Amino acid sequence: MIISKYLSFEQFIYLCECRKLYFQRISKWEDPYEGFYDKTELYKKVKDIIDTNAIDKSEADLIHKTCYISYLSNYTYGQSWTYSDVESDAMWRIYSNKHGVKISFASDDIETMINDENTKQFKTNVPKLFFQKIKYCSDLPIFDANKITINQYVKKSIMTKRIQFFHEKEC
Description:
two-stranded antiparallel sheet; alpha+beta
């Protein structure tokens, strides 16, 4: 699959000079629903539990998982690419600041290149890069601690966006 990224001219110069891609902390993404889409609901549940002063094991587990998810949002990084082969005025305006470039790669090539570099640099099993098409939905699912692990939730929430952004065709 060919994927493309819209960059500001400054980001493109950084890529060329440093030969590095910039991954942003997902907690810094502008869309509050992007990344961890039901934080507000989780925080409300935790506040309700604390306010009642009656915490059982399952509620304590939910509090622990909520804190961990909040922690993960500060240590999870990502980048948005598009698999659309159609030029997008919206993507140019949003991601290139009116003066930019669009770069394209085969997703397998860039995934291999980055994972190989991570292995060389960190000499350990660092979290691997993955490409997956974003799932766009009208109703974002709520995290249910009894039905899904935190790691499954993190990956699922990062790869889900509101239907209003379908035109981006991201991966």
